Amino acid sequence: MKSKYINLKDNQNYEKIKEPAQAIKQGNLVLFPTETVYGIGANALDEKAVKKIYEAKGRASDNPLIAHISNLEMLKKLVTEIGEREKKLIEKFWPGPLTIIFNKSNIVPNIITAGLETVAIRMPSNEIAKRLIEYSGVPIAAPSANISGKPSGTIVEDILEELDGKVEYIIDGGMVDIGLESTVIRVIDGKVHILRPGKITKEDIESLGIEVEIEKQILGKYEEGEKVLSPGIKYKHYAPNTKCILVYSNNNEKMVEKINEVSNEKNAVILCRTSNLEKYNATNKLAMGNTLEEICNNIFTLLRKVDKYNAEIVLIEGVQKDGLGLAIMNRLLRACAYNYIEIEE
Ligand code: AMP
Ligand code: MG
């Protein structure tokens, strides 16, 4: 059966969200936009409903979900306590693309936390997401909208084929604002640990006078059996079928030279900054934009396109690893299964 489609791309008929909100209450799935990426939502307090998310995505049952809330009353019910650092972060960054890990209360079912004693919570700023939560009156568990392993959905057209019929409703809000999933953090001994980088950067959090540590697996490869603070890190993600190689240098010309060198010998697709497009000899080139914000917006859609070229290899330009660049490099390294060439300046 096809999913029911609600078009909120170029209008604000938010009344239409009441029907899918009802579906959430009844234990069904709804695909909806947030400011980060699209999500597949279910009532976070309904174990059976949450199970449907794992089935629809083919997601590993030990990979926990984020509960999305629309007000602080919901938060209080889901957690045992809210620390001082967490309060500061909430005040500054909520609603927005920051997910905070808390100790969970008894009402949070084990299925959403994959058996952990902690629960990940976020208050999205996207108007459609906010209203869906508000109208349904329950926290909504929602992972990124994609079959597990694939790039996350940032526009409905990209994910329609793989998810149509697996959810009761699809709410189309057009292209999302950010294009990368939320920053996931946990406060341990007064320090913020970044478990997954996103739009809210280390520097943004440090500006509140809080110490920040970046988990080493964010840019490094996960080794089998290694202890992780965020189970999601263990799984293959964002990867096209074609082999991808990430190439980076602080010196733009050296990066271009290396990519040209590799692509001259192979049938390649190149993903590059718009300003570098003309510098490549290859025929198949896709522009990622120029700023880090533009690259975030485009990267998942582009990763979904590259397989269509039936190329031997995909060569992707890297970006600087600080600020928002850290989040982009984290996703690209995983898309490239850690095939990475860095050339010194
Ligand atoms: P996604 O739903 O695809 O945006 O992924 C959610 C991310 O949040 C995954 O990387 C999870 O590992 C992480 N996450 C969710 N709940 C927890 C938790 N309780 N502790 C640590 N990480 C979590
Ligand atoms: Mg995901």
Q: Which key features would you list for this structure?
A:
DHBP synthase; binds magnesium ion; five-stranded parallel β-sheet; binds adenosine monophosphate; Rossmann fold; 345 residues
**SS elements, strand count:** 16
- The H/E string reads EHEEHEHHEHEHEHEEEHEEHEEHEHE
CATH-derived architecture of the largest domain: Alpha-Beta Complex
Give the CA-CA distance, first to last residue: 55 Å
Number of helices: 11
Here the CATH topology of the largest domain equals: DHBP synthase
Helix content: 25-40%
* Main beta-sheet annotation: 11 strands, mixed
Instruction: Determine the mean pLDDT.
Output: 96
CATH top level assignment of the largest domain: Alpha Beta
CATH homologous superfamily identity of the largest domain: DHBP synthase
- The whole-angstrom Rg is 20 Å
Strand order of the main beta sheet, please? 1-8-2-3-7-4-6-5-9-10-11
Uncertain segments are none
Mind explaining what this structure looks like?
With 345 residues, this protein is α/β, with parallel strands linked by helices. The protein has 2 domains: 4-219, DHBP synthase (Alpha-Beta Complex), CATH 3.90.870.10; 244-342, 3-Layer(aba) Sandwich (Rossmann fold), CATH 3.40.50. The protein contains 11 helices and 16 strands. It has helices at 18-25, 47-57, 72-78, 84-93, 110-113, 127-136, 156-163, 202-206, 252-264, 292-305, 324-335, and strands spanning 4-7, 30-33, 38-43, 66-68, 98-103, 118-122, 140-141, 169-172, 183-188, 191-196, 212-214, 244-248, 268-272, 284-287, 313-317, 340-342. The strands form 2 sheets. The protein has an 11-stranded mixed β-sheet with strand order 1-8-2-3-7-4-6-5-9-10-11, sandwiched between helices. α1 (18-25) packs across α6 (127-136) and α10 runs parallel beside α11 (324-335). The longest helix is centred in the C-terminal third of the chain and has 14 residues, at 292-305. It is globular. 46% of the residues are buried. Magnesium ion binds at residues 143-144, 152.
